[in-house]
Batch of 2 targets.
Target 1
Amino acid sequence: MKVKLYSVKMYRKCLIFLVFYILVAYIAVNGTEFDYEHQSKWYDDFRQCSFNRQSPIELNSNEAVISYDLPSLKFIHYDVPYQKAVRSENNGHTANIQLPTARLDSAYIVGGPLLNGTTYIMESLHFHWGSIDTHGSEHVLDSERYSMEMHLLHRNTKYATVEEAREHEDGLAVLAVLYAVNATVTEDFVGLNEVINVLESISEFNRSTEIDNFLLSVLLGDMDVDEFYTYAGSLTTPPCSQAVTWVVFSHPITITPSQMERFRRLSDGHGATLENNYRALQAKGNRSVVLRQKRRVLESSVQSALYWELLNKLKPQGELVANDGK
Ligand SMILES: [Zn+2]
């Protein structure tokens, strides 16, 4: 009988422990859950979401500080295919692609607005999109909200993990690429197809697949990477860590309606269509936004007119060349 009593006690102990464990696990999972329909709830659940260095913000070329002198960004190993297959998954909020960082030829960025001597290694990329083509991007450029926005998340290599890096204001650098759907364009932007081709395999929440020979450079195509907005901001999803140096390229990439449609076939953790996964605009406050631009070469017609004018001045009298302004 004594043995039996002991077993009952043990059984009760185990049961209490199990209930406690399930409760802790439930809080751990659901306490970090968020959805885009109840963004105001983020402020209650994640302290930093209500702070004053949040993203996304509206970017305006008239208000930005124009810089011709900011160094350009350097993309290292962006043109080297990943030897190991990379993992793509539907995490209920987006299609996320996780890149290995252990390899010697891992992709990274330097230069641009990043502090001299710091290296930001490529960690992962994901997308934000809408239910229709007129919205979907997180950043708004000169009052225009684009159809989709890709985020390339980089970690400052002085921190060991993204979790550690996001606790520091220089921890992360995110490059944002905007996509504009053009209904009259029939030719795909082929660079995006290495991602689009696996979307069907991850259409449901928690599904994942692998992509062989993943290449980052094709995602940027021939976009002008020398012109971009940059400012200090945050992650646009909870915990909204204020650790991000943002680089938002000012020239969007054109994609076809059918390419965009493939993203809207994903479903979220509740079986609903995964769409409108973008955060509302946040207050810019007194932050400065810099717009890096290249010095413009004079328009060819103006250049030509000036050329003839100069030539006429150099010619001896009587040998004037006609300046027709062409
Ligand atoms: Zn994002």
Target 2
Amino acid sequence: MQDSPPRGPASTDDKIDYACDIIDRCLATHLWYSVSEARNLTRISRAVLMPAQPRSNRFRLPEPPLTASTKIPFIDLQSQYRRLKPSIERRIQRVLDHGQYILGPEVMELERALAAFSGARDVVTVASGTDALRLPLMAESIGPGDAVFLPAFTFTATAEVPVALGASPVFVDVDPTTFNIDPASLEFQIARIRREGRLRPRAVIAVDLFGLPADYDRLGEICHREGLFLLADAAQSFGASLGGRRVGSLAPVTATSFFPAKPLGGYGEGGAIFTDDPARAAIYRSLRAHGAGENRYDIVRIGTNARLDTLQAAILLAKLEVFEDELAARERIAQDYDHLLAGHVAVPPRRPGATSAWAQYCILVKDRDRVAQALADAGIPTAIYYPKPLHFQPAFRQYGDGPGSLPVSERLCLNILALPMHPYLDRETIERIAGTVIAAVTVPAVKT
Ligand SMILES: Cc1ncc(COP(=O)(O)O)c(C=O)c1O
């Protein structure tokens, strides 16, 4: 018997039509459908789709575009440093004074502070977000012959970790209303892998793209039913919440990154693993320190070196002091962008009951490269996350099913554009950026 997705269109052609339909309507109307409307779309028929209510532009009209000489940063770490300079310098000096550069007291202090902030019982800091994904998969003994399901619309690290352990990534499409892993596509891929019988389904890595948590209620149900390990890749979402619970306590195990550009970023590499399971936490602590047991020369498993530097922990402790305030600023800035841009471009999706950490503020625009060039000409940097879905990347092509197999991910890569986003963006700059975007999408391209 043929498996088909439990919800949504059955054939690949239908799926492409369905994805393009939603994204085209967003581009044409500049409005996102609510999640329930999109669910109706998948369950009933496209005809029931009604656009969401337009939002009003409550700010004054944007200023004329910036000139190239007034460059603005994409992420402004200097403003944050000026704010935190005394605290950062005091904390760094303390580390230099005690000299415990590896697993010093600041590392334990940071782990306690992150646990209190997130609501997770245990936090194990590690050397990068990539290590925060790698250690939990190592602890589950994931390796050759195992299938790890993950979205195609993500950063390469999500897929590179299972491959490095010898496992096979199975790419899953994303939900056009959240950009996160689509539970219906996940169920379809699990059924396909089971039917083919070549790989053992073992784990799901959900990514909280751009800072918005994935649908952990549905993902938790699917993983429980299918006996799969659920790992949250929260590299972009630390500080976000869902149903009143913070990232770190939404999945059995969560990985985050402290890469400098992340919502909570250090001045170098860093990451952390969150779990409520003390047995797992103990294994992660052992794995990050070469598989040590009772002491560092008692080697009880094959581990690695994945410890967070004490100096990075000290810097992150200083940054954590203002993190709540920075998250509130990111939310305010996102709302300002929304109000200025809604009706002109498709603004980022939101989920009822969820807050985003706003690692990125991404719009969808039709003529993306021309709009990006107009912004660059006005001294406004943009970024494209991501120019290709992972199953199109040469390194991962062998694991995917080629063009047309994951239509939403493929389509988003053509239209997505990230605007400057950081907690120190002032209103005037936001209005100038929005004004330049609006001018670029309004003025038709000049024919030569
Ligand atoms: C979704 C996602 N996963 C994993 C990572 C890896 O984090 P790190 O660069 O700290 O290793 C990143 C970093 O950009 C990311 O965006």
